[in-house]
Each structure stands twice: as structure tokens, then as C-alpha cells.
Amino acid sequence: MRERNARPRLAVWKFASCDGCQLSLLDCEQELLALGEVIEVAYFPEALTRAVRGHYDLSLVEGSISTPRDAERLHAVRRRSARLVTLGACAASGGIQALRNFADAREFMAAVYAHPAYLHTLATSTAIADHVPVDFELRGCPVNKRQLLEVIAAFLAGRRPAIPAHSVCIECKSRGLPCVLVAHGRACLGPVTQAGCGAICPACHRGCYGCYGPQETPNTASLTRALTALGLERRQLLRLYRSFNANAEAFRSESERHAE
Amino acid sequence: MSLELQAAQLLTSQGLDQLLKALRRGGCRTVGPTVRDGVIAYEDIDCLEDLPRGWTDEQSGGHYRLRRREDDALFGYAVGPHSWKPFLHPPRQRLWRTHRDGDTVRMQREAPDGQRLALIGVRACELKAIAIQDKVLLGGAYGDPHYRARRAGTFIIAVNCTVAGGTCFCASMGCGPNLTAGFDLGLTELGAAGPPAFVLQAGTPAGSQLLEEIPHRPATANEIAAARARVQHTAEHMGRQMPTEALPQLLLRNLEHPRWSEVAERCLACGNCTMVCPTCFCTTLEDSSDLTGRETSRTRRWDTCFTVDFAFVHGGSVRQSTRARYRQWMTHKLATWHQQFGTCGCVGCGRCITWCPVGIDITEEVSAMRTSEPT
Lengths: 260, 375
Hints:
The structure holds two protein chains of two kinds.
Chain A: E1 9-14, H1 20-26, H2 29-38, E2 40-43, E3 56-62, H3 68-79, E4 81-87, H4 88-93, H5 105-112, E5 136-138, H6 145-157, H7 168-174, H8 180-184, H9 200-203, H10 220-229, H11 234-241, H12 249-256
Parallel strand pairs in A: 1-2, 1-3, 3-4, 4-5
Chain B: E1 9-12, H1 13-25, E2 28-36, E3 39-44, E4 55-60, E5 63-68, H2 85-88, E6 92-101, E7 104-109, E8 116-122, H3 124-138, H4 145-152, E9 155-159, H5 170-173, E10 185-190, E11 197-202, H6 205-211, E12 217-218, H7 221-236, H8 247-252, H9 259-266, H10 272-276, E13 283-289, E14 295-302, E15 312-313, E16 316-317, H11 322-341, H12 351-354, H13 362-371
Parallel strand pairs in B: 2-8, 8-9, 9-10
Antiparallel strand pairs in B: 1-11, 1-12, 2-3, 4-5, 6-7, 6-14, 10-11, 13-14, 15-16
Helix pairs in contact in B: 9-11
């Protein structure tokens, strides 16, 4: 075992996000003590009042970049981090807030805020990797805590995390779940979505919502043809592809084919 | 099943129930078809009530629906989404664990599962698939001890198909629908009104021995003829046909056929076809370590030739395109499998057609290649 004083330093950062992915870390109740044994949680405002300043061996970054200030802050985080791993759909693709990328953000501001002039925001919400080099992107909305622990354990061991980039279908079939698309005619993004959640929605007889973003080789055009044959209309297709990962390349370009 | 007059017996549905109970008394885990989540799945079953009485399935490319039958048949459907593969060659199998204590590392190999399995309602195509997996996983110098342990104790009650599914093509592949070998007891469900009854034949001494515990009587000539006619009817009503003539040669001389690009436009590279295939056996190894680095383990899990990582070698994946991956899957299944294992890798169960979300049809792909072969 590592000496306590030689523990690597961990920092957890938040950008534009709902905090759900950070909560997945706190949700690792059984493993939190073991985690504290092997890693020094040096910066984690969601959980700690004290903060160790300086450099970090591993930074976990949640959220997307949606303000000029965050864009600058992210560069500072990168400079102070030996390894940078992003958490969740916001950090990997811009999140649900990236719906602004398809509209005029100023109109939203005017509709919501009494004095939008005080807001300093970017016209788009973008992924962390669009701004700084990223060592690993952990997908999900929110991330899966077992996958999160796997990424940290892999970092500590100096090995590649075992996080497959294949489809959700493989998780469904490995669990013995019948296909909701084939057996019930339900719209499901599973064939074009990356695995990781353990096929939560199909296990509840629902189609996949695409929380983990596009799988490694997504064929959205072919899936869209199948969904159209099931009776989905243009507007439904648009909404299906435009959710938590609306700005992920494969989902974004497919959704644009169904836009007004 | 060759329904020999002397050997064929008649079993009532109560007899089948007693058969299940006898297997359970003997320490077997009984697995069979049951209705779950809108499909006929293979699950743990206790008694006759668990079987899909009065249900059938409607299948076509990318389409499956349960339908009510007009009778109380127990096996009046084709095949469900999952084969018996998950029970014999499970999706995840831990191989070993290590525990580190200071400078000492203790390694513990995973003991093979000694639970005896009784598989109820296995079809002819599935028996063939099990025989193929036996060859793949037990043949040669390095057999898989986990598969061997599961297979060694397996008791199989097979069923002749009395309906053909919309995507079935076992008859073209020479794999069904009639049972020939590989079962302990073989049943053919009779279609008369009233409670289900079966013409039964023992395929092994173990089957005969078990039958002695169960009430039965010799089947009449009429019952045997009726059973034979039902299987014959199934053979004549296959939902699909595979044009098998010189199939390996056809595929291997057409590796650059434009059809591969055309099918790749439709293929989702999701891996469903390989997951539901009863013969696809590929796995990958996943190593894990815990946070402290004291516990590590190696797990084997199902893999598929439709992922990028599957063909990853030094420098990257050798099958970057979906075209290359689909071609690999289909040419292996129908052509190079012969060279590797001495049989075809396809048994004609039709699962890859039904459970492909976009309904890609392996028989249609072969036909298209045959009719549009560049001269």
C-alpha cells in the first residue's frame, strides 16, 4: 500500500452542470473510505470546506463551457493537473444546455432574466475537449459510479480503464433483456449509444435516451430509417437526438436533418 | 428424431410436469421457455405452469411479437430472443482473482460451476448450435474448463418444431426442424384438442432411465404418424430459405462485391446479431484492480466482431469500417468456419434476422450476392 503522505492528489471541478456527476462520486458510499486511503481528496467544493491549492495528480472535471470566465478557468485547471478526466455528458458534449447552440442564446436570456445585460455568457455550450486536451472522457448523464471507480482505480494502477465504447445493445443482451425496439416497437437509441449505464431504461421497458452519447461507430441514419418505419415523425426524431448529448457530433448532425 | 415404432412413447402434460419435478429432485437446475417482458425467454422454470401455454411468436426482420394461439400448446412457438448460450457460455465469467498481502500475491482460479443444468424445450437448430460450440470450446488442446463443467452435467429435453417461425431457415442449413442427435429425451407435441400430449423418444440411457420414473405408454401408430406429419409440415413452411449451394466459394470469391458497402449503409454495428447467435463464441478479457491495488481479477466477457476494439492490434483496428466488420462476421459464419471447425457456423435459427433492429437478413444478403455476382 502507498504511504499516506505519498497519496496522489485528486481535485474535482465544476463548470456548467447540475452536479449530478459529482454526486455519483459521493454516492460511492461503500468505497469512499478506501478512496480516502489511497488518494488525497485535495479540492472538492461540493464535499469539502477546506481546499489544498497547487497542483493535482488527477482532476475530475464536470460540466460544459458556457461562459468566457469558465473558458479561462478551465485552462488554469488544465495547467495544474497532471491527468484530466471529464465526467458526464455536459463535459463530453456540452450537455442539455447545448440546446442553445441550435438557437439564439440572447433570446433565451431576454425571456428569462429581467436584466440580461448583466449576464456574461457564450453563445454556445461546448465540451471540455473543445478547449483543452483531455486524458479520458467518462460518459453518462450522470456517470455510472462503478465506471467512475474503475477510472480512478485504473489511474492509480497506471492501466487503461476498462470502459467499452460499444453499443448499449451489448449490455442489454448480456443481461438477457429482450430488445424493446424489436419486441415492442419502442423508439430506442441503444444501437447508436455508448454502453455504460447497464441498460437501465430497456430494463424498465423503455427505449434508451442516449445519455452516454454516440457509440464508437454510430449509424444514426440507418436507425432513423427504422424509427421512421415505427411511425416516428420528424419532430419526434429531432427531440430524440437533441437531449443530453445534443451537441455530440453524430447526434447533432442527425438532428439537423430533422430540424425546421 | 427417427420415430421408431417400438421406441416411441406417449407422455401426457402431467407426465412432463413429473419429468420436471424428477429432474429437480435429482439436483438439476431446470431452465426452459417462459413468457417474460413480452417474449418467450429461457429462464428458470419450476413446473408446467411456467411454460408458454397457448402462446406463439410472430417474427420477421427486426420484428417480434407474442401472439395468442387457438390451442393450449406448450411449445407452439419458434425460438425466443436468447439461445441457450447464456447458460453454457455465459456473458461474463470470472477466470481468476489475486490478493496481494505485502509482498505476497495469492492467486485463486475460479472453480467451474458444478450445478447440473436441465434444458427444457431445446430445438433441433439449437442442438446443432450446442454441438458446434462443443467443438469450438472443447475441441483441440485447450478446452474451456468452465464450459466443460456446465456441459458435462447437462440434461437435454429437446422438442421437435411444430411451427416454423417467420425467420427460420434450419431446413436449408440441414439443421432441423427434426431432432436427430444430442438430446436425452425428445418430444413432439401432438396438436389434438384437449391437454397437450407428446410423442416421446429417449436419446440416451440417461433419458431412458429418467423415463422409467414417469408414467407413459407406447405411442400408437396414429400418434406417431401425426407427430411425423407435424414436423414435416414445419419443414415445408420455413419463413426463409438460404441458398447454400457452394456458399463458402461464393462469398470468398466476392470479397470486393459492392453489396458489402450496401449492407454497411444499413448495419448499425451494434453487435445484436452476434449476441443472439447461438454459435458466436467470441470473448475478450477484462482485467480489473480495486482502489487499493490489493485485489485484482480477470473476467472473460462476450465480445463481438462489430466493435472497433475486437480487431485492435498494434497500431490500431484492422477493421475500421462497418463494411469490413460485417464481411468478417458473415464470411466467418458461412465460409471460413468450415476451414476452422469443419462445419458451417450457421444453424438457420433466424435470430440474427429477427433481432437486428434494422432487419438485415443474412439469407437475403447471400441471395443478393448470388444474383448480382460480377462476371
